[in-house]
Amino acid sequence: MIASLRESIEADAILYQPEDLRPYECDGLSAYRALPWLAVLPETIEEVQAVLRLCYAMGVPVVARGAGTGLSGGALPIENGVLLSLAKFNKLLEINVPNRTARVQPGVRNLAVSEAAARHGLYYAPDPSSQIACTIGGNVAENAGGVHCLKYGLTVHNILSLEMLAMDGERIRLGSGGPDGPGYDLMALMTGSEGLLGIIVEVTLKLLPLPQKAQTLLAAFDSVERAGDAVAAIIAAGLLPAGLEMMDNLAIRAAEDFVHAGYPVDAAAILLCEVDGLAEQAATDCERARAILWETGAREVRVAENEEQRKKFWAGRKAAFPAIGRLSPDYYCMDGTIPRRRLAEVLERIAQRAAEHGLPVANVFHAGDGNLHPLILYDANRPGELERTEQLGVEILKLCVDVGGTVTGEHGVGVEKINPMCFQFSPAELTQLHAIKRAFDAKGLLNPGKAVPSLHRCAEFGALHVRCGKLPHAELERF
Amino acid sequence: MSDQDIRTTLQDAVLQALAEGTPLNITGGGSKSFYGRIAQGRALAVSGHSGILHYEPSELIITPRCGTPLAEIESTLAEHNQMLAFEPPHFNARATLGGAIACGLSGPRRPFAGSARDFVLGVKILNGKGEILSFGGEVMKNVAGFDVARLMTGAMGTLGVLLEVSLKVLPKPAYEASLYQAMPLAAAIAIMLRWAGQPWPLSALCHDGRYLYARLSGAEAAVKGVCGKLGGELLPEAERFWQDLREQRLPFFGGADALWRLSLPPAAPLPRVPGKWLLDWGGAQRWLKSQAPGEGVFEVAKGGGGHAICFRSGDRHADVFQPLEPGLKRLQRNLKGAFDPHGIFNPGRLYRDW
Description:
The structure holds two protein chains of two kinds. In chain A, 36% of the residues lie in helices and 18% in strands. In chain A, helix 8 packs antiparallel against helix 13 (343-357) and helix 13 runs antiparallel to helix 14 (385-402). The longest helix of chain A has 18 residues, at 385-402. Chain A folds into four domains: 2-85, Uridine Diphospho-n-acetylenolpyruvylglucosamine Reductase, domain 2; 92-209, 2-Layer Sandwich (Uridine Diphospho-n-acetylenolpyruvylglucosamine Reductase, domain 3), CATH 3.30.465.10; 213-323, Alpha-Beta Plaits (2-Layer Sandwich); 353-359 and 380-468, no CATH class. Chain A has helices at residues 2-8, 18-21, 45-58, 110-117, 136-142, 149-152, 186-190, 224-236, 249-259, 279-295, 307-318, 320-325, 343-357, 385-402, 421-424, 427-440, 455-468, and strands at residues 14-15, 38-40, 62-65, 82-85, 92-96, 101-104, 122-123, 159-165, 171-175, 199-206, 208-209, 213-221, 243-248, 269-277, 300-303, 330-333, 361-365, 374-378. Chain A is of the alpha+beta class. In chain A, the strands form four sheets. In chain A, strands 15-12-14-13-17-18-16 form a seven-stranded antiparallel beta sheet, sandwiched between helices. A five-stranded antiparallel beta sheet of chain A has the order 5-6-10-8-9. Chain B has a five-stranded antiparallel beta sheet. In chain B, strands 11-12-10-13 form a four-stranded antiparallel beta sheet. A four-stranded antiparallel beta sheet of chain B has the order 15-16-14-17, covered by helices on one side. The longest helix of chain B has 14 residues, at 7-20. The model of chain B has no long low-confidence stretch (mean pLDDT 97). The chains are: A alpha+beta, B alpha+beta.
């Protein structure tokens, strides 16, 4: 295999020594690690095609990898497989100002697109927290969201066409230069497909005009319930904030200790609400938001007086994850989405479960879209704590499904939520998802075992779940 | 208000069709029966499956059964000052949600607010094995499993029978104003591109061959501020104009020539095809009334970086939708097989091969 690969790819772009493979053993979900059999770092589409054709002929699984910032183990290598790094595909090919598009290779960083577009008064809207490092190929594979997707949508709403390689190496263009593509909407299907359907080698992104003005409000509440009501009231009033984020007390205190954003550390919850648009629009919306926040019982509402203060309001939110990281040796970030009206109730029930397990949970999340990110604090060095954490995590996801939500809002299923998928989908639905996979990848070689659980796996997981009321231990075949 | 659950009847009909090997022609209000290639198969009437199951204004979501009339959905939303922001064309009073989603059509607000598929959050379907399946849901963000819900949008019923669709809805704008001014088409393309690149609250932008029309939506102060920059006259009866554009009731759409829809990059030069043009969506959706042969129109659409659909009054036994490149065609055919392995749903309506 290595000899055959060397016919089409430079020798130093083929890694097989354990020490060379080590950097690829995990993505952002570092609890799961595996060394691939080989890692290849091709530089051209022809080279990727050569890798795929060889793997296809020899029946070798392929796992694609961008920046490796994913939080669900989607890029976790497979021990008998090839890890296909697209890191060298890092060229921003074209910014087309009249059409307001950017054509990029998959290894281009998310933030680099907006930086390059800024001088034309344009930007790329999806802004996952990891945007400084994460790449567009991974964003498409995971349908990445971010703080501003309440108003501006997810990755699926902001891409126009893709060039992909099928597992047999065939190059296929999806979408078009127009606002839609011919036939079935394969753009939607590829977005969020977690590397199971094809290898993305080029993406055309939609760019938006930069808003003239953004205005941010910070509201403090004495109860999480009131903060949750305020979120519903803002949406019901017909406002569509660019961002609407909530932090609970533990998260507020952690962030304040870390970056001194001036947050009220005794509040039960704070909301950050950002409105944007033309200056007149932002001013009108800001006044309405301020009034609603008061009416729903905020004890304090601050409006950022200038750009510096606005950035300070956001600094605490943006630093929340690392700030919470300082409280505890390890933390585990969940990603369920729920109907907004159930926010207060679900947060209450999460707090109860957390207390039962003796594990602190901090909440920092996209309240506007009901996308929760409970952070479970634990210490992996204490015996049993990782297992209790994982069990609490599964309980939280089950709760999300039970109230009409989903196990993953934006991080993807990967290996992490493969079992909770069994709560959300029936055997017939999973069978349909597998049939889609086969339509693209008949041999099942693209990122096998991720994203969609086998029926066998669900039967096993379901049985165990019912019988013991808890998950099997992590070391016993989680994947 | 309609409220009727006939899903088991529909399921039985699909199972019977499967057993007999009889293809089905899924039929809602019949408002878009002119669209696509010629229909074949026994009629499967789905408009009886109707009623709004769930509407939560503060969640911005609505879940109707697919036979629910679009008009009923829109009037329910209007009571809460909300709307279907993709402005689906009705084409007659019986138009249902299922037909709107299956055809995947959107109105003038689409380039600024999003398309039909952009607002689809979840679906319940009957697949070609007669199984009732749900994908997506009633939450704004959901990346569990492949995005089957959006895939169903525009699939012309060839992948399954839509039973329920959950949609994101949006608040109606606080204020709207529309302006128009006479302008040649080529100049209008340049102006539309320039305007759409500004951070302005545009919500529609079209040129009907003589006039350039723009709609602005948002806070009154913001809208009025931009009106001065656009120039032109205030459009009287603006709401009616945009509705007539959406419903293809403007004089442009009359006459016997075939009506083509070209989806192109907004900056694409005007293709050289004999006929007359109406540009919507800031230049990205171009309507062509022409007697030109289909192959020629498909060719120029492809050359311009987009694709074409013979929307009305063309040869419905020939290709209506842009012929696919071989690799893409193989994927789409495989996908059809994954949902409808026995080919019972709307055979030939989308492509002649399935």
